């Protein structure tokens, strides 16, 4: 595709509900990243995939957060039993893998009530 | 803990002036440095990157890096109202990956 595509654009969840956020990276990009951006803050790294392998998940804030990229293309970030502090914009980014130039998607704004 | 610090602003400059945005980082092992622009409600967009000490120019933008002082800056010449956005400084500590540490961003307002 022309760019990184994320869906849904907005998600409202009740506290305790599970959510799944989708990222479709730029075609051919081997590296995929998830970031979390709280209001008024810079993005914070969550996790990184190279193809289907999750090479770094050090930024996931708790075991309620889980990410996968089973076929090395589309990725899903799942948050179980959502809490109010999970409210943020979740950004997906991809790169060709040869450098760190990230291309970000438009993000999913998650609001947990 | 690795940190990237920016003044949140807002930084207000008149149209046509030079805007100077600054960033400091904590880890001397940092390898590469990036400036992203983020319009309100939009995703970050890479505008400059720099790896070596000194200046790097691209159009109206100049990135400056001083590793001894752990300082990186972005100059925007001939500022335009369309430059009004939040500018995020980001640092890579871990080699050739996109694992970046971002500052909180500086909001720039360019007034006509």
Helix content of chain A: under 10%
Please give the number of β-strands of chain A: 11
Greatest interface and its participating residue counts: A-B, 23 and 23 residues
Structural class of chain A: mainly beta
Question: Mind telling me the C-alpha Rg of chain B?
Answer: 13 Å
Shape of chain B from CA axes? globular
Query: Taking all residues together, what is the mean pLDDT of chain A?
Result: 94
Task: Give the SSE order of chain B as H and E letters.
Answer: EEEEEEEEEEE
Question: Could you please describe the fold and organization of this structure?
Answer:
With 113 residues, chain A is mainly β. Chain A has no helices and eleven strands. In chain A, the strands form two sheets. In chain A, strands 2, 4, 5, 6, 9, 10 and 11 form a seven-stranded mixed sheet that branches. A four-stranded antiparallel sheet of chain A has the order 1-3-8-7, with no helix packed on it. In chain A, strand 4 and strand 5 form a beta hairpin. The mean pLDDT of chain A is 94. By secondary structure, chain B is mainly β. Chain B contains no helices and eleven strands. In chain B, the strands form two sheets. In chain B, strands 2, 4, 5, 9, 10 and 11 form a six-stranded mixed sheet that branches. A five-stranded antiparallel sheet of chain B has the order 1-3-8-7-6, with no helix packed on it. Chain B starts with a strand and ends with a strand. Classes of the chains: A mainly beta (113), B mainly beta (112). Chains A and B meet through strand 5, strand 9 and strand 10 of A and strand 5, strand 9 and strand 10 of B.
């Amino acid at each position: 595709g022309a760019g990184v595509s994320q869906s849904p654009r907005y998600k409202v969840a009740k506290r305790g509900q599970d959510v799944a956020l989708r990222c479709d990276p730029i075609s051919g990009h081997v590296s995929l990243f998830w970031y979390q951006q709280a209001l008024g803050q810079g993005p914070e790294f969550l996790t990184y995939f190279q193809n289907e392998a999750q090479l770094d998940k050090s930024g996931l804030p708790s075991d309620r957060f889980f990410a996968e990229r089973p076929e090395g293309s589309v990725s899903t970030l799942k948050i179980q039993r959502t809490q109010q502090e999970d409210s943020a914009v979740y950004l997906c980014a991809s790169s060709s893998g040869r450098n760190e130039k990230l291309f970000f998607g438009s993000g999913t704004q998650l609001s947990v009530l | 803990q690795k940190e990237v610090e920016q003044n949140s602003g807002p930084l207000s400059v008149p149209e046509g002036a030079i805007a100077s945005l600054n960033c400091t980082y904590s880890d001397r092992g940092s390898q590469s440095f990036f400036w992203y622009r983020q319009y309100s409600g939009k995703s970050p967009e890479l505008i400059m990157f720099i790896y070596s000490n000194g200046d790097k120019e691209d159009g109206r933008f100049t990135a400056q890096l001083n590793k001894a002082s752990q300082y990186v800056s972005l100059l925007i010449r001939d500022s335009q109202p369309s430059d009004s956005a939040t500018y995020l400084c980001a640092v890579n500590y871990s080699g050739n990956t996109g694992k970046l540490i971002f500052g909180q961003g500086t909001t720039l307002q360019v007034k006509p």
